Amino acid sequence: MSAGKKIEAKTTRGVTTLYEGAYQVARINQGKVSVAIGMRIPIWSRVKTVDYVDGGTLARLHVIDRDKNTMRVIIKTLSDKQSSMQCDACMRSHSPHNKRCSATLGIISAAAAPGVLYTWGSLAPAGRWKQTDVNIATRHKVGVASYARD
Ligand SMILES: [Zn+2]
Q1: Is 136 a domain residue?
Q2: Residue 29 Cα, ligand 1 centroid: separation in angstroms?
Q3: pTM across the whole model
Q4: How far away, in angstroms, is 92 Cα from ligand 1 center?
């Protein structure tokens, strides 16, 4: 994660949550502060843009850091239902109103080749990338992964 990101506070039903980008860093509930330490799980609803769709799995990738040949991403894997219906253009759950989504069109996604990343939106191939590391909280299907050019 890049340094110097600003901390945002959001209060819902008396509980204040502090976020740094997509990451929850602390919660304040009735004066009790809990701080997230160690491996922090990003929160997908805090992610505003998708960069790539992972070929075959259709996982959504949001780049947090990259250089020429490697990148680190927030990854959102799909539910079995969303992936079997070939949802490839909806940021969160599938919307039948999204006319760009292969699931709405009833077709097989063009983002079909494993090992290839596809540009979000156009689904233009963006080269061969190999997932070198992944850490996903299964309950939320969201985590952090690393990719290297293949
Ligand atoms: Zn969809």
Answers
A1: yes
A2: 36
A3: 0.82
A4: 8
